[in-house]
Known about the structure:
The protein is an all-alpha fold. Helices cover 77% and strands 0% of the residues. The chain is built from 11 helices and no strands. The longest helix has 14 residues, at 13-26. It is elongated, with a radius of gyration of 19 Å. The mean pLDDT is 95.
Amino acid sequence: xxxxxxxxxxxxxxxxxxxxxxxxxxxxxxxxxxxxxxxxxxxxxxxxxxxxxxxxxxxxxxxxxxxxxxxxxxxxxxxxxxxxxxxxxxxxxxxxxxxxxxxxxxxxxxxxxxxxxxxxxxxxxxxxxxxxxxxxxxxxxxxxxxxxxxxxxxxxxxxxxxxxxxxxxxxx
Length: 172
């Protein structure tokens, strides 16, 4: 496990993966080794493998807010917005002020075409992060999906006036 941590910090992910697998083979319920192994899979863009490990941790009662957040990210990458929504909501129960979990939840709602909820959540999160360009973009897209073109333009213009609009946002 210690070797895996050293290799992980040195960004030698393939070797770190092997070290964690060795640690898990000796102690199959070693939470920290499993969590780090899943993180390596996530960084290596292997969301299905990461999801399986994170789900195992949650099933074993070892899922903290970060584990649930990362599980939500994996599920979202695997185009499972309903399941990802559950993971993000559980993460928010444990860490109610986690902007990343809230942002992930918003993306799952977009994937389910629940745009009215997207607007409500982006408004709530924007009170904490008023200059977050991604939130303004998500808000504008939700308005467009609801055929509220004037409101979409207002969202983009607000982002521009706050100085957080990206050129890509303004072009699309």
